[in-house]
Design goal:
Elements (H helix, E strand, L loop, with lengths): L1 E4 L4 H13 L5 E3 L17 E4 L4 H13 L18
Antiparallel strand pairs: 1-3, 2-3
Length: 86
């Protein structure tokens, strides 16, 4: 298995894990049980997504595409231009 990504928080981790699962890639989340120890352990690099070696490049590509996504023109509310609301 390869560690392919370090999510910023548990919400991003679960969202990406589910996105990968929808593409047929089983991802495992590490470090989520350590979140309660914040303040006693370093915060950066605590969470990680792992996938099988043969799926690592495809998973990295999907995450890169997700991170580069922009809202479609016309999908933005007038009061919040440039902000993607989910």
């Amino acid at each position: 298995m390869q560690r392919i990504y370090e999510p910023q928080d548990l919400i991003e981790a679960e969202m990406l894990r589910n996105m990968l699962a929808s593409e047929g890639i089983e991802a495992h989340l590490t470090g989520n049980h350590l979140l309660g120890a914040i303040g006693e352990v370093p915060v950066h690099g605590l969470l990680g997504l792992l996938v099988e070696n043969h799926q690592a490049s495809q998973a990295r590509e999907l995450i890169a595409e997700y991170n580069a996504a922009q809202p479609l023109p016309g999908d933005e509310p007038d009061s919040y231009p440039g902000v993607l609301l989910c």
